[in-house]
Amino acid sequence: MKLAGKTAVITGAASGMGKAIAQLYAKEGANVVVADINNEAIDGVVNEITSNGGKAVGVLANVVKQEDVDNMINTAITSFGSLDILVNNAGIMDNFVPVGDVSDELWDRLMAVNLTGPFKAARSAINIMEKQETGGVIINNASVGGLFGTRGGAAYVASKHGLIGLTKNIAATYGTFGKVRANAIAPGGVKTNIGATITAPSELGFKALEAAGFSPMAEASQIAQVALFLASEDSSFVNGDVIKADGGWTAR
Ligand SMILES: NC(=O)c1ccc[n+]([C@@H]2O[C@H](COP(=O)([O-])OP(=O)(O)OC[C@H]3O[C@@H](n4cnc5c(N)ncnc54)[C@H](O)[C@@H]3O)[C@@H](O)[C@H]2O)c1
């Protein structure tokens, strides 16, 4: 088992990629803190993991709220005694709205969930991980929208570019001079529940996406394997990297 005895906090772990990462980490021996805003779905994931012999606890945590983030991080310590892996996975989309049509509310919401949440969680986690002899690992689930201009609206693309910048800064400071490695994943299209939130795509934003072509669709479990690699010792010298997992979408 690649994560035996390690403790992982995963945000947005009640659905999609977060859920797949939680299941795979538990299978690989990790103690998992399943954090999300969807209480019922949290219970489902925790029950599934524990009934398969894994170790998991759920915590209701909105990554936007500092007190929730603190509680989520403390849950790892109080339940399992350490925090070795943080996966900043929770994220939301923006209907591909281009900058001319972005409301302040949409912009602020996307930045809060996709960028400020991961920052708050990383800040709390690093202050624990740096004090541990074994350090820790931070994995940020970004997007190809964090590398290219048209895979989301202005707010989504800017927030994911920001998340990749945050990843590199953590890597170049704590990964180089401290004990915490950080890397990002940039998935292309993945079959999750996030698609259901694209309720009224912007015509202009969608035209720009169409011009880039549509992505092949991954299973969430395929991205979870990348998150396992980045959490495990298999990637011990990988730091500050962004691993694209898009089935070749952006190679075209
Ligand atoms: N699905 C894709 O095609 C795709 C592609 C690239 C990147 N991503 C990114 O992957 C990540 C996971 O998305 P997914 O596709 O699995 O989506 P999903 O909607 O299936 O799951 C996201 C989970 O995050 C939770 N969440 C939302 N806001 C939250 C908050 N404020 N605090 C805590 N939890 C919150 C939701 O309740 C949900 O359980 C996101 O960051 C997303 O931007 C998705």
From TrEMBL:
Pfam families: adh_short_C2. It comes from Solibacillus faecavium. Coiled coil: none annotated. Keywords: Oxidoreductase. Belongs to the short-chain dehydrogenases/reductases (SDR) family. This is SDR family oxidoreductase. It comes from the Bacteria. PROSITE patterns: ADH_SHORT.
